[in-house]
Amino acid sequence: MGRNGMGKTTLMKSLIGILKPRQGSVVVDGREVVKADSHARVASGLTYVPQGRQIFSTLSVEDNIKTGLTVVGKKKIDDWIYVLFPVLKDRRRRRGWNLSGGQQQQLAIARVLVTEPKILLLDEPTEGIQPSIIKDIARKLNEIKKLRDLTIVVSEQVLSFTPDIADRILVIEGGRFVHEDLRANVDEAKIHRYLSV
């Protein structure tokens, strides 16, 4: 967690390989991937849903999801994707631009889930989503954790969302972690001070 400009997106982009880290390592399933290209990191099990979702607005929902299948060499979307996101099944022929912000977020998550990731990176998944849908996104992420046995790393600044999904919360300020705690021990007032402008 952290305010705008504190380094959350930079960290995410460094993990996925869009930005080259100055130091440190990125290890996925015991393998160092810091020197690997982004596509090799995805093949190793690391996936990324960027801030703003970046779906293909002119493609159908189904075709958006299928773009993720190329990584794993599949042609068909597994049924569990549509079980997890029934709204996408109902709208699978619609163009991406014809979805609400919450539906676009579900589409972006579905697109990376078909790659069968080990780690899912989500950069500000609540951005531009109405508050009632934010709780739905939290429920979906918890369901994904249980069903797919994967690690989810979320960068966020909405404090009401994070405790619903997190096992551990870290606060970043000026590119450095300044606070860390397990969800059960989180002092929301202390974290809120870091998030205030």
Question: Describe it for me?
Answer:
The protein is an alpha/beta fold and 197 residues long. 41% of the residues lie in helices and 16% in strands. It has a domain at 45-158: P-loop containing nucleotide triphosphate hydrolases (Rossmann fold, 3-Layer(aba) Sandwich). The protein has 9 helices and 7 strands, in the order H-E-E-H-E-H-H-H-H-E-H-E-H-E-E-H. It has a 3-stranded parallel sheet with strand order 3-4-5, sandwiched between helices. A two-stranded antiparallel sheet has the order 1-2. Helix 3 (61-72) packs parallel to helix 6 (101-113).
Q: What fold name goes in the CATH topology slot of one domain?
A: Rossmann fold
Largest sheet: 3 strands, parallel
Report the end-to-end length measured between terminal Cα atoms: 14 Å
Taken as a percent bin, the fraction of beta residues is: 15-25%
> What's the average pLDDT?
90
Uncertain parts: none
Q: How many E strands?
A: 7
Level-1 CATH class name of one domain: Alpha Beta
- The CATH architecture of one domain can be given as 3-Layer(aba) Sandwich
Given the structure, what is the number of helices? Answer: 9
The CATH homologous superfamily of one domain is called P-loop containing nucleotide triphosphate hydrolases
Q: What percentage of residues falls in helices of 4 or more residues?
A: 40-55%
Q: Could you say which structural class the secondary elements and strand pairing correspond to?
A: alpha/beta
Any idea what the shape is? globular
Order of helices and strands: HEEHEHHHHEHEHEEH
Q: Which radius of gyration do the C-alpha atoms yield?
A: 17 Å
Order of strands, main sheet, comes to 3-4-5
